[in-house]
Amino acid sequence: MRAARFHGAGDIRVEDIPDLPAPGSGEVQVKVEWCGICGTDMHEYSEGPILVPPALASVTLGHEFSGQIVATGDEVSSLTAGDWVTASSLLHCGACFHCLRHQPSVCSNLSILGLSRDGALAEYLNVPAWACVRIPEGLSPEEAALAEPAAGAVRALRKGRVQVGETVAVVGLGAIGLMAVRAARLVGAARVIAVGRGDFRKETAGLLGADAVLDPGDPSFLERFAALTDGRGADVVVELAGSHDSLELACELTCNQGRTVLMGVFGRPVSVNATRIVTGEKELIGSCGFIYDEEFAATVNMMADGRLQLAPLITSRIKLDEVIELGFRRIHEDKRPHLRVLVSPR
Ligand SMILES: [Zn+2]
Ligand SMILES: [Zn+2]
Question: How many beta carbons lie within 10 A of that of residue 14, not counting itself?
């Protein structure tokens, strides 16, 4: 079968690999319909291996996908061939300290589809049945491929304990930041302020429900932000840009006794003005991934019933054989914005 495999930085190849074995006990085999290329994949492409274990000579990328089950292994009763599914990319061990406390997002032996084991930029993949969520009526397989990143945005808001009526700011308007804007609306934020650069991203933030969209490069940015928050700052700020400056900014924009949720991918250690955190009694909260039967399953359902509409985030659709040229290389080199490029192996 055809698969897009990571061999090293700048070296992703679409190649023929041996057909998969039949799904093992507890697993299903999925014929992939759509798979997104995410920022994590781009990091691997430009400077990897980062999350790909160095011991792996190569791995099939792709962890945001949808498809149809073509075979089921022993001990699978909840799903059958023909079912349309999407699946959690985070495969916890089920046996470590955190797993036993139902904290699988911080499992000590976490393996990640498309990074530490073969993923969905391929015609088929085998996944544990427990990781799958059936795609409900009303949700297209195309949009279902966005559920995985969207679940991360939903978790960030949950970790921020957003209350009805609060003000939420999102710093960093990549695809997940934009999903967080949409999800903030959903959880009852009275005001959602999107903070980021780039006309297309800012426009999309407006489409997804931001009440105000501010550019941190605007000389009157702080003044305008203060005016929107009665001079106090936002109750919850979600940081998704992953840089020293954006972290400083996110902490600064958080009101006293407010919560700053960090979800950005920081390439290196960064510092914060700790005195402002202490004197303002602010909380810094990390958020990473999601829990398969909590945020992930809930996100699929909220997408299906129309409460979490994310279609504006799909910016192009390409074939697996075009994934280098029109996917990785173009996203890497293009100045034009790409939010989600979806890849079809069919
Ligand atoms: Zn991703
Ligand atoms: Zn575990």
Answer: 19
Distance of CA 6 from the midpoint of ligand 2 (Å): 26
Rounded CA separation 149/212 (Å): 23
Q: What is the pLDDT of residue 187?
A: 92
Instruction: Name the closest ligand to CA 146.
Output: 1
Ligand nearest to the CA of 91: 2
* CB count in 10 Å sphere of residue 266: 14
SS3 197: coil
Domain 2-146+310-344 in this protein, CATH class: alpha beta
CA 13–ligand 2 middle distance (angstroms): 32
Judged by DSSP in three states, 138 sits in coil
Interval between CA 134 and ligand 1 midpoint (Å) = 19
Q: Look at residue 343 and give its three-state secondary structure.
A: strand
Q: What is the mean pLDDT of residues 288-298?
A: 97
Q: What is the pTM of this model?
A: 0.96
Q: How confident is the model at residue 266 (pLDDT cuts 50, 70, 90)?
A: confident
**CATH number for the domain whose boundaries are 153-286:** 3.40.50.720
What is the spatial distance between Cα 284 and Cα 258, in angstroms, rounded to a whole number? 9
CA separation for the pair 192, 234 (Å, rounded) = 9
Candidates 129, 96, 119, 121; CA nearest to 24 is: 129
What is the domain partition of the chain in residue ranges?
2-146+310-344, 153-286
Taking Cα atoms as reference points, which of 1, 40, 13, 34 lies closest to residue 343?
34
Tell me the helices (H) and strands (E) count for the chain, helix number first: 11, 18
- Give me 317's structure tokens: 């659709």
CA of 216 to the centre of ligand 1 (A): 25
